[in-house]
Design a protein that fits this description.
Chain A is α/β, with parallel strands linked by helices and about 280 residues long. Chain A has helices at about 1-20, 25-30, 35, 65-75, 95-100, 115-120, 160-170, 180-190, 200-205, 235-250, 255-260, and strands at about 45-50, 50, 55-60, 60-65, 85-90, 105, 120-130, 130-135, 150-155, 175, 195-200, 215, 225-230. The model of chain A is unreliable at about 20-40 (pLDDT under 50). Chain B has ten helices and no strands. In chain B, helix 2 (about 15-45) crosses helix 8. The chains are: A alpha/beta (about 280), B mainly alpha (about 220).
Chain lengths: ~280, ~220
């Protein structure tokens, strides 16, 4: 009986969530006065990851990481000071909806530019070119995906990285977990030989205090991910402004500085052939 | 629409649901077996067994399933290095079944106990009067009637189990429905809402017949008194 009551409550909760998702426009109309007005003392709602150390990480209300630093710089160039930024969590599966419902104004959340995504959102940037790589224990002799035959590899359920391994390296035993933190914990236990995703995410994980010195990024990337700034469809003007800000950030050295400080202690060097990138022209 | 249909060429949705059905099937059998033993413990005349049954039910019923399955992966698999099969994915699949079974056994136990409560006290007294001790009385008199009274609540447990089988993704069974849904959303972000609805509909299709069947069976098989 109790179970049925729980189930009824769950149904009600799901219904409420669905309804609020549909009615999201109403919500943002109140808090979103900043989205339409440009500059001034306006606020900006920026979607970031909350769970990726080194990129977008929630440290009890303050946010750190490379995505966050780029977001702050760009916001500043758009005339929005740091205390007027409202950071919103943007999990991978929700990013398009957050933009379409105007619950956020822009997204800096390891958001790779792809053609499918371009159908529903606009991208500024790229501001970084990452590549899929491997994180292995410091004493491991794995040097690339070719060495993974028969080994246990961990990635996140449903991610692009996981799919690429399934398609291109069928001999690898792939373990899929809800988050990279679980993968790294399992690798610490010794049952997992390597963790795979974009190199900069791995560097962020490796530079966490608890993991310092235990893992290394292999540095042999086998894909190209262009991290862009997600914008609602049809914001060409805003896209130009963001691109200008990114170009300025790269030129004045703040970009390099942000990258170095956020991957400190991870023994990581970004791919210098592809970085820093030149923002693509806005559509 | 054509866009939407192309999803089914790239992604094998029925295969993902089949994984959930397999998870639910094995977990349901184990949960029913463990739950029956626990129910016996709880109605037994031995205080230590009663205590164990009650403690098990309270602990597992009040622990989130995600935590149990995450423990199966991080605790049993990663740290204690327990393997239930030679192949990694089979091993993780079985660990997920163990987690699902242990959790739902607590609910199955309570469903069976509610069935026991439908058996009039006189039945137990009559069994005792003709010389049956606890186990034969339970096996021959109490449980057969209790199960017939517990079909509807057991059906509810099964329905919950089918839907909860998606949590097996936390235990690394990524081939099941919610794992495939994540993959589809990652690659086809232009069709997020149709993808959600597809999977919601899939579960409705799976669950509704079970609800109808258990309601029908509970009427048909109820002990007429």
């Amino acid at each position: 009986m109790q179970k049925t009551r729980y189930a009824a409550a769950a149904v009600a909760a799901v219904a409420a969530l669905t309804l609020s998702a549909c009615g999201g426009g109403g919500d943002s109309a109140e808090s979103g006065s900043g989205s339409s007005a440009e500059g001034g003392g306006e606020t900006l709602r920026i979607g970031i990851k909350f769970d990726q150390p080194g990129l977008g990480y929630d440290e009890g209300g303050s946010y750190s990481g490379f995505d966050v630093d780029v977001a702050k710089y760009v916001a500043n160039e758009l005339g929005v000071s740091e205390e007027n930024i409202e950071f919103v969590e943007a999990p991978s599966a929700n990013r398009e909806n957050l933009l379409a419902n105007e619950q956020v104004d822009m997204i800096f959340a390891t958001y790779s530019i792809t053609d499918t995504r371009k159908e529903t959102v606009d991208f500024a940037g790229p501001y970084f070119v990452a590549g899929q790589d491997l994180l292995v224990p410091t004493d491991s002799d794995i040097t690339g995906p070719e060495d993974l035959e028969g080994k246990n590899l961990c990635s996140v359920t449903g991610s692009t990285s996981a799919q690429k391994i399934k398609d291109q390296y069928p001999g690898v035993q792939l373990v899929e977990q809800p988050g990279y933190a679980e993968c790294v914990t399992a690798m610490g236990g010794g049952q997992i030989d390597a963790v795979t995703t974009d190199d900069i995410i791995l560097a962020g994980l490796a530079s966490q205090e608890a993991n310092a010195g235990k893992f290394k990024v292999v540095g042999n990337t086998f894909s190209e991910e262009n991290y862009g700034v997600g914008l609602p469809k049809g914001s060409t003007e805003r896209c130009e402004e963001v691109n200008a800000a990114i170009t300025k950030m790269i030129e004045d050295g703040a970009w390099e500085e942000a990258l170095t400080s956020n991957t400190e202690g991870a023994d990581y060097a970004y791919n210098e052939d592809l970085n820093p990138p030149t923002p693509a022209p806005c559509a | 629409m054509e866009n939407y249909l192309s999803l089914f060429e790239t992604y094998d949705v029925p295969a993902a649901f089949w994984v959930n059905i397999q998870l639910s099937f094995w977990a349901a059998i184990w949960a029913l077996a463990i739950g029956t033993v626990l129910a016996l413990f709880r109605i037994s005349p031995i205080p230590s067994l009663q205590w164990f049954g009650a403690a098990y039910v309270n602990i597992f019923r009040n622990t989130p399933l995600t935590i149990i399955l995450a423990f199966g992966f991080l605790g049993l698999f990663s740290v204690m290095q327990i393997s239930l099969a030679d192949e990694l994915d089979v091993s993780l699949f079985r660990i997920a079944i163990v987690g699902l079974a242990l959790y739902h056994a607590a609910f199955a136990c309570e469903a069976i106990r509610s069935g026991v409560n439908t058996v009039p006290l006189g039945q137990a007294e009559a069994a005792r009067a003709i010389g049956l001790s606890f186990l034969p009385a339970a096996r021959l008199i109490i449980l057969p009637q209790a199960f017939r009274g517990a079909i509807a609540p057991l059906g509810n447990v099964l329905i919950a189990l089918i839907k909860n089988s998606t949590v097996a993704a936390a235990g690394s069974v990524a081939t099941e429905a919610s794992g495939l849904m994540k993959t589809m959303i990652e690659f086809r972000s232009d069709l997020v809402i149709p993808i959600f609805l597809t999977f919601a509909l899939g579960f409705v299709i799976l669950v509704i017949p079970i609800g109808l069947l258990t309601t029908w069976a509970s009427r048909k098989l109820a002990v007429a008194r």
